[in-house]
Design a protein that fits this description.
The protein is mostly helical. The chain contains eight helices and no strands. The chain has one domain. The model has no long low-confidence stretch (mean pLDDT 86).
C-alpha cells in the first residue's frame, strides 16, 4: 500500500517532470562540455570568453525569470480557480502535463546554461570557449520560447468554463469507475 501512495504522489505531483527535465539539462550540459574539448565550434562564431560568459549569464537570468513568472501565473490561476470554481479544478490545473513540461523545459535550459557557464574563464582571453554548449543553450532558449507560446495557448484553452467543467466531469467519471 505504501508503494501505491508513493506512485500516486509521483504521478499526481507537479514536480517530478520538471525534476526529470533538470536532470536531462544537466546530462546535456555534461555531454556538451565533454564534446567541447574537441573544439567542434569555431571561437569566431561564438566570440571570446567574455562574450560566452555574457551569453550564458543572460540565458540563466532570463530562464529563471521566465520560470518564476510562469510559476507565479500558475499559482494565480490556481487561486482564482479555487475562489470561483470547485476545488477539484485546482487538482486538474496542478496535474496538467503541459504545465509541467513547460516549466521543465525552462528549468532544463537554466540548468544547462548554468553548468556550461562554469567552464568559462572570462578573465582569460586565451581560455577555451564551450562553443557547442553555447549553441545548445541558445537552441534551448528557442525551444523555451516555443514552449511558452504553446503553454499560453494551452492555458487559454483549458481555462474556458466548458473545458473546466469537462475536466471535472472526466475526473468524476474516473473516480466512479474505480468504485
Amino acid at each position: 500500500m505504501k508503494s501505491f501512495r508513493i506512485w500516486h504522489q509521483l504521478r499526481t505531483s507537479m514536480w517530478p517532470i520538471p525534476v526529470l527535465c533538470v536532470l536531462v539539462g544537466v546530462a546535456v550540459s555534461l555531454a556538451t562540455v565533454a564534446l567541447d574539448t574537441r573544439n567542434l565550434v569555431s571561437v569566431e562564431f561564438i566570440g571570446g570568453p567574455d562574450a560566452a560568459f555574457a551569453i550564458l549569464g543572460g540565458i540563466d537570468a532570463s530562464m529563471i525569470a521566465l520560470t518564476g513568472t510562469v510559476l507565479t501565473m500558475v499559482l494565480v490561476v490556481v487561486q482564482l480557480a479555487m475562489s470561483q470554481f470547485s476545488p477539484r479544478i485546482v487538482r486538474a490545473i496542478l496535474h496538467d502535463r503541459p504545465s509541467q513540461y513547460a516549466i521543465g523545459i525552462f528549468v532544463a535550459a537554466f540548468a544547462q546554461a548554468m553548468l556550461a557557464m562554469r567552464e568559462i574563464a572570462p578573465t582569460d582571453e586565451s581560455a577555451p570557449v564551450p562553443g557547442l554548449s553555447i549553441i545548445v543553450a541558445l537552441a534551448l532558449v528557442v525551444v523555451s520560447i516555443i514552449a511558452l507560446i504553446l503553454y499560453i495557448n494551452h492555458i487559454g484553452q483549458s481555462l474556458r468554463v466548458a473545458a473546466l467543467i469537462e475536466s471535472v466531469g472526466n475526473e468524476t467519471r474516473e473516480v466512479l469507475d474505480k468504485l
